[in-house]
Amino acid sequence: MNNPLYDTMFAPYADKDTTFLHLPDGGVITHAAFVRRAAQLAHSLCAYGVQTGERVAVQVEKCPDMLALYAACVQLGAIFLPLNTAYTAAELSYFVEDSGAVLLVADPARTEELAPVADAAGAAFATLSASGGSLSDDADARPHVFETVARSEDDLAAFLYTSGTTGRSKGAMLTQKNLISNAVTLTELWHFTKDDVLLHALPIFHTHGLFVATNVMLVAGGAMVFLPKLDIDQLINWMPRATSMMGVPTFYTRLLDDARFDSDLAANMRLFISGSAPLLADTHVAFEERTGHRILERYGMTETNMNTSNPYAGARIAGTVGLPLPDVKLRIADANGAELPRGETGVVEVRGPNVFAGYWNMPEKTAEEMRADGFFITGDLGVQDTQGYVTIVGRGKDLIISGGYNIYPKELELLLDGQNGVLESAVIGVPHADLGEVPLAVLVPQSGAQIDLEAIKTAMAEGLARYKQPREYRVIDELPRNTMGKVQKVALRAEFGS
Ligand code: MCA
Ligand code: AMP
């Protein structure tokens, strides 16, 4: 193999006229057409000056060309860096600068706002969308074949930014091996074949939609119903022609909220998979009662891809995230990394071919989260039963997961603390029926000052993606602290969390 990721995911389909993507309008893109499009885009990347090993930052609405751009990066050996479409220009400029991306690819509609971001970072700028753009138009005239650049399994394939407790996002460096091992393992484990049709309504700028859903379907050679976003009408329309779905818990609660969703509609489906956030045991039970299907829950993170999964054939236990994947070593450890006896709660640590190569330009952060024996400290609190099933019981890290998107309170608190009249702030996650959790901001005014909440909301809207913006605000006189002076978020959650 001269480019293992390309040879595993894309090369096998160069001459296959089988369906890869079903589009909402009824159109179809075959595997072969997809590979040809990727080759055209690889030529265009070269024309824009991108070289092997360089980063390509991509903030584009979900469309087939965005997926083909991922394949093009793999073929060229460039590093694909997809970014949430909700990010503001301010958020984006950090990622482009920090990653040293040589090209920013954005939606044509955001050119005015984002071309200067690329410019300021010394990157080139191009556009791409379902209806055209400078990069996609350029690709139209390019050859359908591109000479694949040789790479090794240890070469980097992608960067995904993930926030941290410091509030500063870190670029997780993922190698070809990380992606291949997980995709091959999951394809086998979940019994995906070329006959599968996956309902794909997730975004493709995160691990779940890109490296779990898409990579698995590429390895299996199956097809995806490629929907731009979660749209329950579309899911219901396509479900009788599909065999499987992957989604965050909100996908399942929204389906259950629709009376049209029943066992007849799901009669052709063989597998529903959930991840990225905890699936409530209640949802599990209601889903089985309605459809006869037991949702298969799995667990992972950006730095590690998937770590555990409930079994395909064995017991899928509600509330657990299942067993460690066959090639993943998992231990529940104490603060020093020593393995705890089964049944005791500790930090989940994992080691295997799925674990990333480290944080870009942050060796000290990588070292903080990596044990000397190669185990990665996830920051999740878990417990393992005698059969090996893992239950995530909490998070050691201060993280809010809203509809499958991660929100790090520190990032919001730093912005809030800088607002007029604010002495200090604390952001907590509060339960939300649809999204699982949403952020609530608790503010303490400076002595004698008035807090102007409207001005604060405007500042949040300018600086933060919509999904991160606090849904509610509370103003109190002082934050509860322990004797060490640490803010007691548990107390705040108890007071404001209902
Ligand atoms: C949209 N909004 C949100 C979210 N999404 N607010 C909070 N949390 C969200 N997740 C806001 C919008 O800004 C907008 O605000 C309003 O909600 C409606 O927007 P819309 O786009 O219509 O929302 P939606 O289509 O209903 O989206 C909700 C969603 C979506 C379906 C839950 O966010 C989604 O597809 N989430 C999946 C995320 C994901 O793929 N996570 C995987 C990460 P306004 O109306 O005020 O303007 S990978 C991962 O976690 C690991 C590795 C793993 O294990 O998989
Ligand atoms: P991220 O790396 O940003 O995608 O977020 C990963 C985090 O999501 C993990 O560290 C967990 O805290 C959480 N997570 C992912 N899947 C699950 C799951 N099935 N159950 C509970 N938490 C999950």
Which descriptors would you attach to this protein?
Rossmann fold, about 500 residues, 9-stranded mixed sheet, 3 domains, GMP Synthetase, Chain A, domain 3, binds methylmalonyl-coenzyme A, 4-stranded parallel sheet, 25 strands, about 30% helix, globular, binds adenosine monophosphate, single chain, alpha/beta
Detailed description of the structure:
This protein is of the alpha/beta class and 498 residues long. 31% of the residues lie in helices and 25% in strands. It folds into three domains: 4-151, Rossmann fold (3-Layer(aba) Sandwich), CATH 3.40.50; 197-395, ANL, N-terminal domain (Rossmann fold); 399-496, GMP Synthetase, Chain A, domain 3. It has helices spanning 4-9, 31-47, 64-76, 89-99, 111-120, 134-140, 176-189, 207-220, 232-238, 249-256, 281-291, 363-369, 409-417, 453-463, 489-496, and strands at 19-22, 28-30, 55-59, 79-82, 103-106, 124-127, 156-162, 170-175, 197-200, 223-226, 244-247, 271-274, 296-301, 305-309, 323-324, 329-333, 346-351, 358-359, 376-384, 390-395, 400-402, 405-407, 422-432, 436-445, 472-475. The strands form six sheets. It has a nine-stranded mixed sheet, with helices on both faces. The chain has a four-stranded parallel sheet with strand order 4-3-5-6, with helices on both faces. The protein has a four-stranded antiparallel sheet with strand order 16-17-19-20, with no helix packed on it. The protein binds methylmalonyl-coenzyme A and adenosine monophosphate. Methylmalonyl-coenzyme A (MCA) binds next to helix 8 and strand 13.
